[in-house]
Specification:
The protein is of the alpha/beta class. About 20% of the residues lie in helices and about 30% in strands. Bound molecules: flavin-adenine dinucleotide and FE2/S2 (inorganic) cluster (FES).
Amino acid sequence: MRLTLIPQNRVFELDAGQPLLDTALAAHVNLPHSCKGGNCGSCRARLVSGTVDYPRGIPLGLTSEERADGFVLLCQAVARTDVVVEAREIRRVTDVEIKSLPCRVARLEQLAPDVMAVYLRLPAIEDFQFRAGQYLDVMLPGGRRRSFSIASPPHDAGLIELHVRRVSGGEFTEQVFSGMAEGALLRIEGPLGQFVCREPGPERPPGPVILVAGGTGFSPVKSILRALLEGGEKRAIHLYWGARHEVDLYQRDWLAARIERFGNLSFVPVLSSPAGDEATRYRTGFVHEALFEDFADLGDAEVYAAGPPALIAALRAGLPARGLPAERLYFDSFAYAPDATPGPVQS
Ligand SMILES: Cc1cc2nc3c(=O)[nH]c(=O)nc-3n(C[C@H](O)[C@H](O)[C@H](O)COP(=O)(O)OP(=O)(O)OC[C@H]3O[C@@H](n4cnc5c(N)ncnc54)[C@H](O)[C@@H]3O)c2cc1C
Ligand code: FES
C-alpha cells in the first residue's frame, strides 16, 4: 500500500499497521504533530482518496464534523487501501537526537498545592540536547509513557526541571506526590515536540513576543522565556499566565526578579476562579480573553502558548481575527492519551 502526500506528490510505501504520520516522519518528512495520541488535532489532514482505520478507536481530537468533511488524524490513522493525503510539510525545527536515558530524581520541591518541581540528573557521560519548549516522556512499565515539558532552558547545563501537576487518580503524578523520594530512578525519552523557541533570524517579526501559559503550561513557557531573556532578546515580551487561584501561580519571586532586571518583560496573571479578595487584586476570567482585550492587532507578533487543550483551541479560534498569521502561533496542547482504547473504526 502507498501513501501519496500532496501537493508535494511524495510517495511512500506503507508498513501494515503503521500510522501515516509515523511513515512520513520515518522518511524525514516533517508533518505537523504534537501529542501523537489523537488528542491535540495538530496532525489533522485531508484524506483526498482511499480508506483509513483507527485501530485504537476514533481519536478524541477529531470532531464528527471534521470526519464528515474528510479530515483524518495522521498520528492515529492506518491505511486500508492506497491513500492520498493533503498535508502541509513544515520546515524541520529540531535536529536533535531523541534518546532513551536513565536519570535520578535529584530534588523535589512543592511549588503549589498540586504542582511539584521534579529536578532530574542525567548520566554525566550523556549529552542531552534539546530546544527550549520541548518535552520528554517518562517511561512506565509496559512501554507506557507520560509527557512533561522541560522548564529549564538548553543553555543551563544543570538539572532538568519539570513541573508536574497532580492528576487525581493518576498513576505517575500521584506517585510523584506520595511515593517518590529523592534519588529515585526514572527512565526518560526525549527531547520531543515541535513547540520550540524560534532562532533569531530575518524571518522573525519585529513585534512583541506573547507567551501564554495555562497552569503548568508555564513550564515550557519558562524555558522559552529564559532562552529569550538570557539570549539577549530585545523585543517586548508579554507573559500571560492563567490559573484558578493566586496560589497556583508559583515561582512568583523568580518572575518578579526577572521583571525587575529585564525592562522588556511584562507579566499579566489572570485568575479563572478567584476567591476572597483575589478578584480585586487580579485580572479575572480566562487568560485568552485578557490577551484578546489587550491586543486588537497582533499582525507583527509571535505567540507561544502551552496548557490545556481548551486554552489552545480558544487561541487558535481567536487569534486570526487579531491578524496573527497561523504559522506564528506556536503551541503545545497538554492533551493526554488513554493508555489503550478499544476497537477499530473505519473512516
Ligand atoms: C506534550 C505534553 C506536555 C505536557 N507537559 C506537562 C507538564 O509540563 N506538566 C504537567 O503537569 N502535565 C503535562 N502534561 C500532561 C501530563 O502528561 C498528564 O497530566 C500526565 O500524563 C498524567 O499522568 P498520570 O499517570 O498521573 O495520569 P493517568 O494515570 O494517565 O490518568 C489518570 C486519569 O486522569 C486523566 N488525566 C490524565 N492526565 C490528565 C490531565 N492532564 N488533566 C486531566 N485529566 C487527566 C486520565 O484520562 C485518566 O482518567 C503534558 C502533556 C503533553 C501531551
Ligand atoms: S499529534 Fe495527532 S492528534 Fe496530536
